[in-house]
UniProtKB/TrEMBL annotation:
<dbReference type="GO" id="GO:0045454">
    <property type="term" value="P:cell redox homeostasis"/>
</dbReference>
<feature type="domain" description="Carboxymuconolactone decarboxylase-like">
    <location>
        <begin position="95"/>
        <end position="168"/>
    </location>
</feature>
<dbReference type="InterPro" id="IPR029032">
    <property type="entry name" value="AhpD-like"/>
</dbReference>
<keyword id="KW-0049">Antioxidant</keyword>
<dbReference type="GO" id="GO:0006979">
    <property type="term" value="P:response to oxidative stress"/>
</dbReference>
<dbReference type="GO" id="GO:0032843">
    <property type="term" value="F:hydroperoxide reductase activity"/>
</dbReference>
<feature type="disulfide bond">
    <location>
        <begin position="131"/>
        <end position="134"/>
    </location>
</feature>
<dbReference type="InterPro" id="IPR003779">
    <property type="entry name" value="CMD-like"/>
</dbReference>
<feature type="active site" description="Proton donor">
    <location>
        <position position="131"/>
    </location>
</feature>
<keyword id="KW-1015">Disulfide bond</keyword>
<protein>
    <recommendedName>
        <fullName>Alkyl hydroperoxide reductase AhpD</fullName>
        <ecNumber>1.11.1.28</ecNumber>
    </recommendedName>
</protein>
<comment type="function">
    <text>Antioxidant protein with alkyl hydroperoxidase activity. Required for the reduction of the AhpC active site cysteine residues and for the regeneration of the AhpC enzyme activity.</text>
</comment>
<feature type="active site" description="Cysteine sulfenic acid (-SOH) intermediate">
    <location>
        <position position="134"/>
    </location>
</feature>
<dbReference type="Pfam" id="PF02627">
    <property type="entry name" value="CMD"/>
</dbReference>
<keyword id="KW-0575">Peroxidase</keyword>
<dbReference type="GO" id="GO:0051920">
    <property type="term" value="F:peroxiredoxin activity"/>
</dbReference>
<dbReference type="InterPro" id="IPR004675">
    <property type="entry name" value="AhpD_core"/>
</dbReference>
Length: 181
């Protein structure tokens, strides 16, 4: 499977997404591993099965089995953390912010990939899930690992495009079903 396969699934009304895919697939601010993991974690976070399958086939070969698992783990843990921490940040009662989360997050300590890569993937997923508190925390950690603003921005740009692709594929799924009826 190639990037061309994914681009072929994108209709003309979303041709900007095809152009952005070309650019982001070779984004120089990220290593190949960082790009691949960001695409995969982001695709998992969108919950769009066809997109996840295509992205895994295209970018999965760039990762070891442990790194692939780490990208999936970033999507899974952020799926939990982003809900919890968005709640504590947005609810009016501030006492929730000082309460321990009491949610298991052991994989964050030993994710199976470079810590900075895992944090980058977690940032992308947190952007998709809209958790400002988590984005802030992961971005600070990335800076502490020497990851610059351009790399963080590149990861979030990938997340934005992957999220938009999920929207398009969901819309098109409905269009094809209606046309077949």
């Amino acid at each position: 499977m190639t990037l061309e396969t994914l681009k072929a699934a994108v209709p003309d009304y979303a041709r900007d997404l095809r152009l952005n895919l070309d650019t982001l697939a070779t984004e120089p601010a990220l290593t190949e591993r960082q790009r691949a993991g960001t695409f995969i974690a982001s695709a998992c976070a969108t919950r769009q099965p066809r997109l996840r399958e295509l992205v895994m086939a295209i970018f999965g070969p760039a990762l070891s089995e442990a790194e692939l698992t780490a990208a999936k783990t970033a999507a899974a843990l952020m799926g939990m953390n982003n809900i919890y921490y968005r709640f504590t940040h947005l609810v009016s009662a501030k006492d929730y912010q000082s309460m321990p989360a009491r949610l298991r997050m052991n994989a964050i300590a030993k994710p199976g990939a470079e810590k900075a890569d895992f944090e980058l993937w977690s940032t992308a997923v947190s952007a998709i899930n809209g958790c400002g508190m988590c984005m802030d925390s992961h971005e600070r950690t990335l800076r502490g690992h020497g990851i610059g603003a351009e790399a963080v921005q590149a990861a979030v740009r990938i997340a934005a495009v992957v999220n938009a692709l999920a929207v398009v594929l969901d819309m098109e799924k409905g269009t094809h079903a209606a046309a077949a009826a």
